[in-house]
Structure formats: structure tokens, C-alpha cells
């Protein structure tokens, strides 16, 4: 498959990822490994660098539209920045192909939890939360960000359900906060991997970046026009399909 396909792939993946609030890595890894024929280690670094563009573009879109609670993003980043270096370190010693299967199982588990978690419709959703409310969950940001360092997985895949069901955030607010966190995590993880001498597919990155920059602007705009329940369903379907793909391709 030609490297030019990274352009439309970038547009599609960035639009979906910034619309539904999950990390682009969950879609980039299958594309880079199975379509672009990169080895898993090179795919991780390539995915992270591309995500810096896509998630960064999406972050600018939600910040300019004032859709995100930047204080919440900052709280989550403080936890995430501890986990990312740990994940990068682990990735150097654990076979990435084995971790793809494990992460597929995790994705399926999280999507099922999101499906079967009881919704409390008697209480209103909020768009802002305090540090006191967020503090009990910061360790989860650290835990999930380890996956960013290992396989370029975004914390939004796992934090969005928690922010929505535990902190009562609207789907749009939860996704917007996680976009900012994922952009910063991707930048840190990419920098660490490259500083350790790991290689990435430069030509693929050059083709993908224009696509993700455009898609990163479109996704958040579409999110503001789609019902909260619909966004939840898109998130669940995306997480489930990615999980099934990773599990069955690594049996």
C-alpha cells in the first residue's frame, strides 16, 4: 500500500479520534502494522509523532471554542507525566506484539464497563470539576498513561468513561479535557522514544500530518453538534472494534 494513503487515513483517524475522545494510537497501530508494514516498535514512535499533530490540532480547536476545562486537563497531565516515562522504559524490554493482544482485551473490557455502567439521570451533568473531585482518580491517569509510552494508546480510551460516570462530566467536556492530555502525553512519549535512538517512518509522518491537522479541527466541531448519548455510543463502538481487531490478529 502506498505511503500516500497515510493522508486520507490521517484525516479519517483524527476526525474519529477527536470526535469520540479516544487516542489515535488505537487506530494508527493497526494501520501502521498491517497496512504500512512497519514493525511494532517503529509503529509506536511513528504513531506518537503523528498524534502530536492530530491531538494538538484537536486541542487547539476545543480550547479556542472554550469547550474544555483546562484546570482538569492540567490535573490529569500531572498524573500522566509520571506514567509516560515508565511506559517508554517498559517498551524497551517487553515484546510489543504480546502487548497488542493484552491491550485489545483491556479495550474490550473498558467498552463493556461503559455499556453496563448504570446511568444516573436524576443528577445533572457538569462541564467543570474541582481538584478535590479529581484527586482520587489521578492515579488512574498515571496508570493509563503507561500505555501511551508502551504502545501509543491514549488515556482518553480509559479516562473518558471515568470522567463521565464518576465525575458526572458531559461527554463533550470529558473528551475535550482528554484531548489536551493526550496531545501532551504524545509529545512527551515521542520525545523520549526518539531521544533513546528509536526510529520512525518519516515519509509516512509527512503524508499523515496534513490529514490529522485537518481532521483534528473537524472532529471537535462535529462533537458539538451530536447528542451526548450518540457520542457515548460512538466511543463504545470505536473502542470495541479496535479491541476485537487487536485480539483476533494476535491469537
Q: What low-confidence regions span 5 or more consecutive residues with pLDDT below 50?
A: none
Structural class: mainly alpha
Q: How many separate structural domains?
A: 1
- Shape, please? globular
Helix fraction bin = over 70%
Sheet of most strands: none
Q: How much is the radius of gyration in Å? A: 17 Å
Order of helices and strands: HHHHHHHHHHH
Count the E strands. 0
What is the overall number of helices?
Answer: 11
Mean pLDDT: 83
Distance between the termini: 24 Å
What are the salient characteristics of this protein?
globular, single chain, mainly alpha, 11 helices, 251 residues
Structure overview:
With 251 residues, the protein is mainly α. It has one domain (3-118, 125-248). Helices cover 76% and strands 0% of the residues. The chain has 11 helices and no strands. It has helices at 6-20, 25-35, 40-64, 70-91, 96-116, 131-134, 138-151, 156-165, 171-195, 202-223, 228-248. The chain starts with 5 loop residues before the first helix and ends with a helix. The model has no long low-confidence stretch (mean pLDDT 83).
How are the SSEs ordered, and which strands pair?
Layout lengths: L5 H15 L4 H11 L4 H25 L5 H22 L4 H21 L14 H4 L3 H14 L4 H10 L5 H25 L6 H22 L4 H21 L3
Helix pairs in contact: 1-3, 1-10, 2-3, 3-7, 3-9, 3-10, 4-7, 4-9, 5-8, 5-11, 8-9
